[in-house]
Design goal:
- The protein has about 625 residues and is mostly beta strands.
- The chain folds into four domains: about 70 residues, Sandwich (Immunoglobulin-like); about 180 residues, Chondroitinase Ac, Chain A, domain 3; about 90 residues, Immunoglobulin-like (Sandwich); about 250 residues, no CATH class.
- The strands form nine sheets. Strands 30, 31, 32, 33, 36, 37, 43, 45, 46, 48 and 49 form an eleven-stranded mixed β-sheet that branches. A five-stranded mixed β-barrel has the order 14-15-21-18-19. Strands 1, 4, 7 and 8 form a four-stranded mixed β-sheet that branches.
């Protein structure tokens, strides 16, 4: 039996104007995933995570995934766990992708029980709170009567405690300057001196708040940390007080407080008309920094979380469709930029540190940051188009064109991005087993079909200017599979119905989408051009172990050509200069009948509907039988 070598895999697109009634046009949804830790970096289980009324609970390893999230800008995510202060992050979901959003929680400093009907004072590790009588209310606005548990959590922003607070210090100001601040624009970047979260709970554990008519008085310790002298506060200064608004995910300027000192401890006194996180900050008009996040293949990472952590400020951003981000910074600050993406329920990240000197930036442009290259394999599918003639002893021109496509959850591990063809230098060969070749796929019960295969819909289509080839989805071991059915039986004889590609064909692709697999309708026009086919001069060859074989071929018009040889369980790939001839060595080949292929290859990566890269491989050439003796 003569085997035709399956040389590669590919991903695709479609010619504009080809629309079908069965293409998915329903609502779009995506996912938000990340890791929740303590401020020491230890994973936290059983944390409730909520956004857009979608809720998840973190697993033992601290990971979570929010499903069915509607695409939007500034999606606020709430993280809560008993005994910890709530935290919040925000992200942007463009379309069908999975975006990353990570958080840390800080344990509460302490709890004090007070009577709601009488004036009361609370002090926990230097933080002081005074309440008026009858100032507590339920979530529905009705007055609460009974015992109130006051949970107090203070954060020193000059320490790692800051990770337990909403650390994106982008803010909305009211342009109300104090003696130590300048008038600033609506959006500002904050420099923090101290933060506090006061949470109120009724006797049944229900969350309470206070009335704006009876504000509480707070005094919280503050610090100048390592801030430059120009930013430092002194006793007697007045400063703005800011609260975190979980509805918009930003700090909002609320009022003015006073800096005081007692027994060497510097504190900030102010009134709070409600309770969430409060902050003693100074606002400044920010500058901005921009950069790009790429994966191990150089493909842009959509939906990555980027934290921009400076000595004086902190902001976060989400990368766009092309992997670019923009975040707020202060000129003169040294900023650590950390990009994080979630693949295979694991976090993958990269960071760079850069001093913001303002060079290269202007009112219209942000200061550039060097690329953040994350070492993660995000390839989530492969589509193979082959324009191949397969010679046998009986037929020297057996047409063997084919189409195959597989899609899967991205694996993360770098070995799945190690393509032996791409890594070859001209004149080099790679020798291994068929199993090693299949490592370009995540593991599966069937080689080339991973256990977590995803559907792109009921069909997958590749088109040329003349023909349309629709591959219906089949189920192989309960996994969706898109492989062209080469033969049909009409009741009398077996009919060959292979696709027919020609050199120079422009290839388009389309898939209808599958909501359950987080895939929308997908079109990629002109994703590849079928390269010139090679034509081997000899149709019957033999190769002795320990010897070499030289062949000539026609159709050499590229810079390089690939040769594939298999015999037994051994596979060999070589890359040669495309000059019409090559010589292969039999070293490491096993004896037996096999095949030899010479082909031109076009291989690229394209974005699937969820922004993940799909490997495309289109090859064009000839396969002949080979006897290794």
């Amino acid at each position: 039996m003569i085997r035709i070598i399956a040389l590669g895999l590919l991903a695709v697109g479609c010619r504009a104007g080809q629309n079908y009634e069965d293409v998915y046009t329903g609502p779009v949804h995506g996912k938000v995933s990340g890791l929740v830790t303590s401020i020491d970096g230890n994973p936290l289980a059983d944390v409730s995570v909520t956004a857009q009324d979608v809720t998840a609970v973190t697993a033992e390893d601290g990971t979570y995934t929010l499903l069915d999230v509607e695409p939007a800008e500034n999606i606020v995510i709430e993280f809560s766990k008993q005994g910890y202060a709530k935290n919040y992050t925000s992200t942007t979901l463009h379309s069908w992708e999975t975006v990353a959003s990570n958080a840390s929680l800080i344990e509460a400093d302490g709890f004090v029980v007070v009577d709601s009907t009488t004036p009361s004072s609370v002090e926990v590790f230097g933080t002081k709170v005074r309440f008026s009588e009858n100032s507590f209310f339920n979530s529905d606005g009705s007055q609460y009567t009974g015992e109130v548990t006051v949970q107090v959590t203070h954060v020193d922003p000059s320490t790692q405690e800051v990770w337990g607070a909403p650390t994106d210090l982008t803010a909305i100001g009211h342009s109300t300057p104090s003696s130590t601040t300048k008038d600033f624009a609506t959006v500002s970047q904050l420099v923090s001196y101290g933060m506090v979260d006061v949470a109120l709970f009724g006797s049944e554990g229900e969350e309470l708040n206070i009335s704006s008519d009876t504000p509480a008085f707070l005094e919280i310790p503050i610090t100048n940390g390592d801030l430059p002298e120009v930013y430092q506060l002194s006793p007697g200064d007045t400063q703005s007080s800011w609260s975190f608004d979980p509805n918009v995910g930003k700090w909002v300027e609320e009022g003015v407080g006073t800096v005081v000192e007692e027994d060497g401890v510097v504190s900030f006194q102010f009134e709070a008309s409600h309770f969430s996180w409060w902050n003693c900050d100074q606002g400044f008009v920010p500058s901005c920094a921009s950069g790009r996040v790429l994966d191990i293949t150089g493909f842009p990472v959509r939906g990555a979380e980027v934290t921009c952590d400076g000595n004086q400020s902190f902001s976060t951003a989400t990368t766009d469709d092309d992997g670019y981000f923009v975040c707020s910074v202060l000129v003169g600050d040294e900023v650590t930029f950390t990009a994080t993406t979630v693949v295979d329920s694991r976090l993958w990240s990269q960071e760079t540190v850069q001093f913001m000197d303002g060079e290269g930036s202007s009112a219209a442009e942000c200061e550039p940051v060097k690329n953040l290259d994350i070492d993660v394999c995000r390839i989530a599918g492969s589509v193979n188009v082959q324009n191949v003639v397969g010679a046998t002893e009986v037929d020297s021109t057996l047409q063997s064109d084919n189409i195959a496509a597989f899609f899967w959850e991205p694996p993360g591990d770098l070995k799945y991005c190690n393509d032996p063809l791409e890594s070859l230098e001209v004149g080099d060969c790679w020798v291994g087993t068929h199993e090693e070749v299949q490592r370009a796929f995540p593991e599966g019960a069937i080689p080339g079909i991973p256990d977590d295969s995803r559907s792109v819909g009921s069909w997958f289509e590749v088109r040329t200017e003349k023909d349309t080839y629709r591959v219906d989805q089949r189920s192989v071991d309960a996994q969706p599979n898109y492989t062209w059915d080469n033969y049909s039986f009409d009741g009398v004889e077996l009919v060959d119905q292979r696709p027919e590609f020609q050199a120079g064909d422009i290839l388009d692709a389309q898939a209808p989408g599958d909501y359950s697999s987080y895939f929308g309708a997908w079109e990629v026009p002109g994703f590849a051009v079928v390269p010139t086919a090679t034509d081997i001069d000899s149709d019957d060859t033999s190769l002795s172990i320990g010897s070499s074989l030289s062949l000539t071929y026609d159709g050499h018009d590229a810079e390089e050509v690939f040769v594939s040889v298999y015999s037994g369980d051994t596979q060999m790939f070589c890359k040669f200069e495309d000059d019409g001839q090559f010589t292969i060595q039999s070293t490491n080949l096993s004896s037996g009948w096999g095949g030899l292929s010479v082909f031109h290859l076009e291989s690229e990566l394209f974005a699937g509907p969820d922004g993940l890269p799909i490997r495309t491989q289109v090859f064009s050439g000839e396969t002949i039988p080979l006897n290794v003796e």
